[in-house]
Amino acid sequence: MATTMTFVILLIAVSMASLLGLLAIFSVYVGYLHWKYSHIPAPKRDNFFLGHVPLISRELERGKILDEVVDELHRIHGSVMLIWLYHKPLVFLSDPELARKCLVTLNLPKNPFSYTSLGFPFGQRMAGNGLVTQMDHGVWQKRRTVLNPAFHRRHLMNFMSAFNNSCDLFLSKLDEMADGKTVVDMAQEFSRVTLDVIGKVAFNVDVNVIEDANSPFPMAIATCLQGVQTNFRSPFWRINVLQFPFQKSVSQATRFVRDYAKNVIQERQEAILRGDDTPLDILAHILSMAESEPSLTLEDMVDEFVTFYVAGQETTSNQLSFTLFEILKNPEIENRLVQEIETVLGSRQFVEYRDLGNLQFLGQTLKESLRLHPPVEATSRETTRDGYFAGHFLPKGTSVLICWFILHRLPEFWPEPRKFDPERFSTAAKSPGHGQSVPYFPFSLGPRTCIGQTFAQFEARVLMARLLQEFELSLIPGQNELRHEERLTLRPKGGVQCTIKRRGTVS
């Protein structure tokens, strides 16, 4: 008995000594990192191990988002600023020339720390190694070349009927609630119609999310996105027992979306083998990647399917939500839009391709919404060699974050930056940067700019034009200020709560 007790005590002592030894080694490593980056401007750290996490957490609890916190800090510490996420150094760059240097001149690779969370939230494959998350530039370039034609303007012209058909379903659903009294969350409705559009146009599938309020698809995608956001901010998720139930729900949602994608892909492959006529859509281009990449697997194709489905739906949905909120807060803008839509469309309830260019003020309004509320508010890169950025030395392997949210609000380029003003993008407007190139990058910059940006803007113009043509919407009382929240992308906090009535009817 005494021998057993002695052994247990010895085991505990050895374990404690080992833990203390590991803590000492980790402390030395963290101290080395602090020394290595000590020359870069930064707020005072709250804690040796936690870095700036307590500071950021306090601000988030006050209702701010990370972009707003960083925006305030960069005004104090400059355009190159260091933030410690626990023991990980992240350098925020808030200068347009530095953005161009990183994304165009140097074409820095994406940062694995950030994009692994999107590809594999909590270790579960979601977007995997799709076009957005692919780290191997050679592989990315091959796939981008194959997929580019699917997003060419000439090809997208063929989708106008599909855009309008989804819009018909969307408006019909809203018409059921257009009594001027029923409160409708338009953010949720935009989410449903954009899911419908991307499914039908890109993959020739109907997920029936507009008519079926109980469809599991919207909730599954929302859970996946929340998982990505939580994973990014939880580097110690593997040992966070309290988070395990949520992690399980994310894994289940991810498997649901990927299993659906596999079924769609396999059904298309079988149709091709049978010699059936199949559409030349985005899925067709995904399948054609195998011709230039023989090693391409089913899981690789699913990666691209999920990437386009999630990214294509979420960003456009949020853009429409932000835009509608700003329109409804600015009656003079709404009146001008309604007049333009009436002039261009008349009584025609179909937006043709030629109409898109004539809806100029609507285009300006959508652009201004992307400036003030970019759904993808930042991008992350990693330096591949030692170098200087605005006079500050950044070692090889440094994680840098370029925040569009901040660049789009720099007062030296954008007078009254927080004012919603579509006239900034009129052809008559002078460059607010006094001859400088204006920092406007809602779809990123450089070779890895968003492949689907033209698709998204076609879709947004059709949906917003048809919505404002048919309905008069009003924000319910209390929505005086637009607040942001992060769920991988930037979205309006609390949605966009409205009442709806047919345009021209009397309350």
TrEMBL record:
Cross-referenced Gene3D superfamilies: Cytochrome P450
Required cofactor names: heme
Cell location: Cell projection, Dendrite; Endoplasmic reticulum membrane; Microsome membrane; Postsynapse
Keyword Transmembrane (UniProt): yes
Pathway linked to the protein: Lipid metabolism; C21-steroid hormone metabolism; Steroid metabolism; cholesterol degradation
Enzyme Commission no: 1.14.14.25
Positions bound to heme: 450
Alphabetized UniProt keyword annotations: Cell projection, Cholesterol metabolism, Endoplasmic reticulum, Heme, Iron, Lipid metabolism, Membrane, Metal-binding, Microsome, Monooxygenase, Oxidoreductase, Steroid metabolism, Sterol metabolism, Synapse, Transmembrane, Transmembrane helix
Tagged with keyword Heme: yes
Cited InterPro entries: CYP46A1, Cyt_P450, Cyt_P450_CS, Cyt_P450_E_grp-I, Cyt_P450_sf
Predominant location: other
Catalytic reaction(s) noted: desmosterol + reduced [NADPH--hemoprotein reductase] + O2 = (24S)-25-epoxycholesterol + oxidized [NADPH--hemoprotein reductase] + H2O + H(+); cholestanol + reduced [NADPH--hemoprotein reductase] + O2 = (24S)-hydroxycholestanol + oxidized [NADPH--hemoprotein reductase] + H2O + H(+); cholesterol + reduced [NADPH--hemoprotein reductase] + O2 = (24S)-hydroxycholesterol + oxidized [NADPH--hemoprotein reductase] + H2O + H(+); 7alpha-hydroxycholesterol + reduced [NADPH--hemoprotein reductase] + O2 = (24S)-7alpha-dihydroxycholesterol + oxidized [NADPH--hemoprotein reductase] + H2O + H(+)
GO-annotated molecular function: cholesterol 24-hydroxylase activity; heme binding; iron ion binding
Pfam families given in the database record: p450 (PF00067)
Domain of life (superkingdom): Eukaryota
TM helices/strands, residue ranges: 7-35
A single GO cellular-component term on record: endoplasmic reticulum membrane
Topology within the bilayer: Single-pass membrane protein
A GO BP entry: cholesterol catabolic process
Function: P450 monooxygenase that plays a major role in cholesterol homeostasis in the brain. By promoting constant cholesterol elimination in neurons, may activate the mevalonate pathway and coordinate the synthesis of new cholesterol and nonsterol isoprenoids involved in synaptic activity and learning.
PANTHER family according to UniProt: CYP46A1 PROTEIN-RELATED (PTHR24293:SF0), CYTOCHROME P450 FAMILY 46 SUBFAMILY A (PTHR24293)
Family to which this protein belongs: Belongs to the cytochrome P450 family.
The protein's name in its UniProt record: Cholesterol 24-hydroxylase
